[in-house]
Specification:
It catalyses: oxaloacetate + phosphate = phosphoenolpyruvate + hydrogencarbonate. Belongs to the PEPCase type 1 family. This is Phosphoenolpyruvate carboxylase. The chain has 37 helices and 9 strands. Helix 23 links the parallel strand 8 and strand 9.
Length: 923
């Protein structure tokens, strides 16, 4: 049986191996033709030796010995070659995954978990009450938020060429040798591989925010504009068919967001102008797509009034169509669509001060709201269906209706974010200028809350037109003024949230509210009325201490009458954001994950007692050390009551490209978000029952032990920061030109002030992956001791509890990508031998301990026993990492030894790019 399974697996992976050999062969031919046989032969020798290292046929030093001292001008094509080998192997793996999914469907096997089909089966089996479902899904929302943390290291050109090769490889698989087009397809693939080889891998200049805005909008062109409305329509239809007697999903469940251009926490380049640019470019994209679709609909809805009868509403629309009554005189739908296009053109011109593509120069009245556009499109839809032409209505017209309903005039909600320290400084200045209080910083927390609450009740602004402000205050108020303009122009959904980084108190929340009031966004109401704000105030709890105190902070805020009134005006909806990155950097992997879970439990209890509807916003990164991992599993791992139909999460860096650059992948990933949300909301997925509190207490204990072990290394060991800076390329991460944000919040060498992206990326490059596991092994080993009953208890929880299963599965994934033999080469970069031996010794011991305890608790023989696809991926790709890591260490040694030539620096950045591509996460 076992041998048969091995044979089946080998046969299933045969196309993948063939694709990798084929693409690798073309890349090799390209290198030989353009770099010469000597370079090609060296690359081949290194490649063969790296694979021999993987098969344990030779010592690891074999590759290092081949590469040590390689002239920089020779090292550069080596680095580029192995970077592209990895990229093409990734491409082949993605195709293989699609191939396996198709085979799964073709075989008639049950739908896989994380698909909506599987979720619908589970909901059907649960026999749920429609009224309860409707209540749970009130104001349902699933919102992936593209953030301004772009760790995607591939340039757009490289990314686009990779997409072309993917499409050509799929075409090639459908052809046979001798078929028309077979040879031409290979020729086209060779052409694209040559384009890759001739394209520089790294940027010469750092991305600007304007570039990031354009990159973010690119994904709407690639997939999101078409895929999101289609999923919304499908989910609504599926749920209403199951519970037809209740109103479900009055609004689209899937609504995207963005931080790009609104997130100014630590980013000095976000200005009022940038806010305007981000919102206007998004709106221009939406208007342009709508107008283009209306042009196409005019072509397709050509029904003649001599053959069909139209509704009075459509007839009235047709009367407002073309100025010349002879144009399409007997084709009312074309005339009606022209009238809609004229009004939408006027709307776009009023909002953008220009006409998008396909716009009409017209004096038609603009639409006041997206719903007004939708009303006209719905009238056409109803008339077409009444004529028995539903097939026509279900095509472009349905797609446009769903798009307008989903995206409105704004396309995506632009969140605003700033650090609480900045708010405090600006509020203190405004209060002093107005005479309300001269020394706000000296006040106690209670005094601050009283003062701020009083100011929020008055309509009097703090500033007059002649106020003289510091540069900081002027900039902050300018940004908020721009947000007010955006809301007035595109609607409240255009700027839905104001997020407070490092929120630690009620006054932090009220300070943000006061700034919104000063900008004219928050209306304090009349003396007899209640305050209201179209922008929700969202505290972000980031450190482990802040997560622990988050529920108490929220409860205290809700006790302040003016804040409670604001929440009531928003339908009793309160959003809270949870930070994964800083909590991990603060307390380590296990402690951070448990702090997040505990925070959610406490927040759910506050929501229950206070009567609010809680929405959690998860600030997850791409790597496990920053909350990464499969989104579906992460959603199911939330505590009971934490989802309730609503979920927002950040999508960052290389994860955005991996999930949303291709329609099939985008559909699957967005579907999995909704599937997880529906299951977590409507089903009991935690599965602990009466065992919940004992399980929570056990994790309290484990988290305390894990945090202590992590702190002993990261915070308490003398010289740790020096070790980190010397043994990783963290100093060079800032030169990679992967985003507009500085690498640190402040000009400091402190780990606490370093951003999570370079912290995680540096450990990943050095193959330690420390943020994704350190401390967990000690916690498990100390708690279990020599007691087999305790080990059995953990094993039982692992099997029953999605939280623990997901935490350990993600840990195994990140540890499988670590390699402490390679990490030892990086450790050799540390000058102080005693420091090097001490800290790397601690890392090596904890690494072995963690693997040992993972296997003991889970019962798995290997780290990736539960993830064969990743095991296969590592098997295929990781030999290509060997030379990249070895060359990076060598080049870092040269740079730090005084060779700061441009070629050495470029070589280091190229290795970082290649390793990030190979590891498929970078920060």
């Amino acid at each position: 049986m076992g041998q048969s399974r091995v044979v089946q697996e080998q046969e299933a992976t045969r196309p993948l191996r063939e694709d990798i050999r084929f693409l690798g062969g073309i890349l090799g031919d390209t290198i030989r033709d353009h770099e010469g046989p000597e370079v090609f032969d060296l690359i081949e020798r290194v490649r063969i030796e790296a694979f021999r290292v993987r098969r344990e046929e030779v010592e690891r030093s074999a590759v290092a010995d081949m590469l040590d001292g390689t002239p920089t001008e020779v090292a550069l094509p080596l680095i580029r070659a192995f970077s592209y080998f990895v990229l093409l192997a990734n491409l082949a793996e993605d195709i293989q995954r699609d191939r396996r999914r198709a085979a799964h469907v073709a075989a008639g096997e049950p739908p896989q978990d994380s698909s909506l089909a599987a979720t619908y089966d589970k909901l059907d089996a649960a026999d749920l009450d429609g009224t309860s479902v409707a209540e749970q899904l009130t104001d349902a929302l699933v919102s992936p938020v593209i953030t301004a943390h772009p760790t995607e290291t591939r340039r757009r050109t490289v990314f686009d060429v990779q997409a072309k090769i993917t499409a050509l490889m799929r075409l090639r698989r459908r052809l046979e040798p001798g078929d028309p087009g077979y040879d031409d397809t290979e020729l086209r693939i060779r052409r694209e591989v040559l384009t890759l080889w001739r394209t520089a891998l790294i940027r010469l200049a750092r991305l600007r925010i304007q570039d990031e805005i354009s990159v973010g909008l690119r994904y709407y062109d690639l997939t999101l504009y078409d895929v999101i409305p289609a999923i919304n329509a499908e989910v609504r239809a599926a749920l209403r068919s199951r519970w037809p007697d209740v109103d479900l999903l009055e609004r689209p469940i899937l609504r995207p967001g963005s931080w790009i251009g609104g997130d100014r926490d630590g980013n000095p380049y976000v200005t009022a102008e940038v806010v305007h640019t981000a919102a206007e470019q998004a709106a221009a994209y939406a208007f342009g797509r709508y107008l283009g679709e209306l042009v196409e609909l005019e072509k397709s809805l050509s029904q003649s009034a001599r053959l069909v009868r139209v509704s009075p509403a459509v007839a009235a629309l047709a009367e407002a169509g073309y100025d010349d009554p002879a144009v399409f005189a007997d084709e009312p739908y074309r005339r009606a669509l022209h009238a809609i296009r004229a009004r939408l053109s006027a709307t776009a011109r009023r909002a953008l001060d220009r006409l998008p593509d396909n716009g009409l120069t017209t004096d038609a009245a603009p639409y006041p709201t997206p719903q007004a556009v939708l009303d006209d499109l719905d009238a056409i839809d109803a008339s077409v269906r009444a004529s028995g032409d539903a097939l026509l209505a279900d095509d472009r017209l349905a797609a446009l209706r769903h798009a307008v309903e989903t995206f409105g005039f704004h396309l995506q909600g632009l969140d605003m974010r700033q650090n609480s320290e900045v708010h405090e400084q600006v509020v203190a200045e405004l209060l002093a200028w107005s005479g309300a209080h001269q020394d706000y910083a000296s006040l106690s927390e209670a005094e601050r809350v009283d003062l701020l609450a009083t100011e929020l009740r008055t309509r009097r602004p703090l500033l007059g037109p002649n106020a003289r402000l510091s540069e900081l205050a002027a900039k902050e108020l300018g940004v908020l003024g721009a947000a007010k303009d955006v809301i007035d122009t595109f609607g409240a959904a255009a700027v839905p949230n104001y997020i407070i980084s490092m929120c630690t108190s009620v006054s932090d929340m009220l300070e943000a509210a006061l700034l919104l009031k000063e900008a004219g966004i928050l209306d304090p109401g009349t003396p007899d009325g209640s305050p209201h704000s179209p922008v929700g105030i969202v505290p972000l709890f980031e450190t482990i201490e802040d997560l622990g105190a988050g529920a108490a902070t929220l409860a205290a805020a809700l006790e302040v009458p003016v804040y409670r009134d604001l929440v009531a005006a928003a339908g009793m909806r309160q959003e809270v954001m949870l930070g994964y990155s800083d909590s991990n950097k603060d307390g380590g992997y296990l402690a951070a994950n448990w702090a997040l879970y505990r925070a959610e439990l406490d927040l759910v209890e506050v929501a229950r007692k206070s009567g609010i509807r809680l929405r959690l916003f998860h600030g997850r990164g791409g790597t496990v050390g920053r909350g990464g991992g499969r989104s579906y599993d992460a959603i199911l791992a939330q505590p009971a009551g934490a989802v309730r139909g609503s979920l927002r999460l950040t999508e960052q860096g290389e994860v955005i490209a991996a999930k949303y650059s291709e329609s099939g992948a985008a559909h699957r990933n967005l579907e999995s978000l909704i599937a997880g949300t529906l299951e977590s909301t409507l089903l009991d997925v935690e599965g602990l029952g009466d065992d919940a509190e004992p399980a929570y207490e056990l994790l309290d204990d484990l988290a305390t032990r894990a945090r202590a072990a992590y702190a002993h290394l990261v915070h308490d060991t003398p010289g740790f920061v020096e070790y980190f800076r010397q043994s990783t390329p963290v100093a060079e991460v800032g030169d990679l030109n992967i985003g507009s944000r500085p690498a640190s919040r402040k000009p400091t060498n402190s780990v606490s002030d370093l951003r999570a992206i370079p912290w995680v990326m540096a450990w990943s490059q050095a193959r330690v992956m420390l943020p994704g596991w350190y401390g967990t092994g000690t916690a498990l080993e100390d708690w279990v001791g020599d007691d087999p009953a305790r080990l059995a208890r953990l094993t039982d929880l692992y099997r029953r509890w999605p939280f623990l299963r997901t935490v350990l599965s993600n840990l195994a994934q990140v540890m499988a990508k670590s390699d402490l033999d390679i990490a030892a080469r990086y450790a050799d970069l540390v000058d102080d031998e005693h420091l090097r031996d001490t800290i790397f010794g601690m890392i090596r011991e904890e690494h072995a301990r963690t693997i040992r305890m993972y296997k003991a608790v889970t019962g798995h023989d290997e780290l990736l026993s539960d993830n064969p696809s990743l095991a296969e991926s590592i098997h295929n790709r990781f030999p290509y990492l060997e030379p990249l890591n070895q060359l990076q260490v060598d080049l870092l040694r040269r740079l730090r030894g005084g060779d700061d030539s441009e070629l050495v620096k470029r070589g280091i950045l190229l290795t970082m790019n290649g390793l990030a591509t190979a590891l498929r996460n970078s920060g």
